[in-house]
Amino acid sequence: MNDLMIWATVGIAGVILLVLALLQRKNVSFNKLVLIGLVLGLSFGAITQAIFGSTSKVVATAVDWIGIVGNGYISLLQMLVIPLIVISLISAFTKLGDTKNLGKIARNVLTVLLTTTAIAAFIGVITVIAFNLQGASFVKGTASKDNLAFLQQHQHALSELTVPQKIVSFLPQNIFEDLAGTRATSTIAVVIFSLIVGLAYIWLKEHYPNDALAFERGTDILDKLISRMVRLVINLTPYGIFSLMAKTIAVNSIKTIVSLAYFIVAVYVALLLVLVVHTVILLLTHTNPIEYYKKVWPTLIFAFTSRNSAGTLPMNVEVQTKQLGINKAIADFSASLGLSIGQNGCAGIYPAMIASITAPVVGINIVSVKFILTLIIIVTISSFGVAGSGGGATFAALIVLGTLNLPVGIMGIVLAIDPIIDMGRTLVNVNDSILAGLVTAKRSDMFNEDVFNGKEKIEQA
């Protein structure tokens, strides 16, 4: 009987995917398809859990099969991440024209990323105080032994490195290992390697212009090739979102969610406040927030459902250049740097909240100015090198807890509902990197107002 129910559930999901394919063939707009995929995924997941329960064999097996679409989609996007980082950053140098703007662009991007991360950390502390979450009095029960063992093992590994050693770990040692993503800091190592190649290109351009021109043409060809690959994969977004959202809703126990609902609400309030800060920055740069969010929401929805900042990189670059009118060089910088530096959700709000909840357990007054300032500084510095994929927030929080000599027990409790929190964190991460590109483009006079307002269209690869 179970087998029949499993295949019936998978069959219904297959029919839904076929409906999405038919709508796509009828040229329904991409944004509408994304919304339809999201709504169908939510509905399908909720109905499936209501009928069978989140822990049933039917749900576990069915979502495993349905997950082929969502997980496969993420895998295809992740396949493009490292090549896209390398080519995007190098082509940023080749397409920049006047390399004198390079320092200004990098400073502006980093300023936005790190400033908003510091603000996000402050918001995290204030939210903990406002919701009275100090000491984890909001939860009933204790952390599982497996969760605690996992966290303590990783915190021990991190504590073995001094601060200078952690900084050195950001640098590429064996670029082939980093291209394969074998280290937690591989992403930022690849970013640094690509920047070094770009700087070497500038020297080549000054001393051997003909060779530089050949390198530029080769890079441009690779850039176009990868852009076309990105477009092919992005066309699968509605199907990926349906699958990912269906799985998320179907397998997360309502009981677990309810038991930690207060913490979930607090985190999402903090995330919404950071988005308000982002909106204020848009207004200060004379950007229409409504028009902005209309253009970026498909990218943000994918970030939300996939919980993968790195996987969202191709869509991030595309929405900046094709929809917002941001110069390609700046889009490449902000999207790539935003993967490993200054993530507002994973490296800003979350570690600040976890540290603020934990600190009273060891007698620290989190309302004190000294604690708040110390925490903001530590969080901001620790935001360098946070991997833009699953586990980045845990990594960032462990660094902060270790630096402040705080226990990891609270993390063991909230780890059960981490996927639900991670969706919102990832959305905020991606939005901040897009915002950094927009602000930098406007400050550098490399922003196409006509593209933003829909008066000019950039051809897709």
From TrEMBL:
GO MF entry, a single one: L-cystine transmembrane transporter activity
Main location: membrane
Transmembrane residue ranges: 6-23, 30-52, 72-93, 105-131, 184-204, 232-254, 260-285, 362-387, 393-417
Protein's membrane topology: Multi-pass membrane protein
GO CC annotation: plasma membrane
Pfam families, sorted: SDF
Cell location: Membrane
Keywords of the record: Amino-acid transport, Membrane, Transmembrane, Transmembrane helix, Transport
PANTHER family: L-CYSTINE TRANSPORTER TCYP, PROTON/GLUTAMATE-ASPARTATE SYMPORTER
Family: Belongs to the dicarboxylate/amino acid:cation symporter (DAACS) (TC 2.A.23) family.
Name used for this protein in its record: L-cystine uptake protein TcyP
Organism: Pediococcus acidilactici DSM 20284
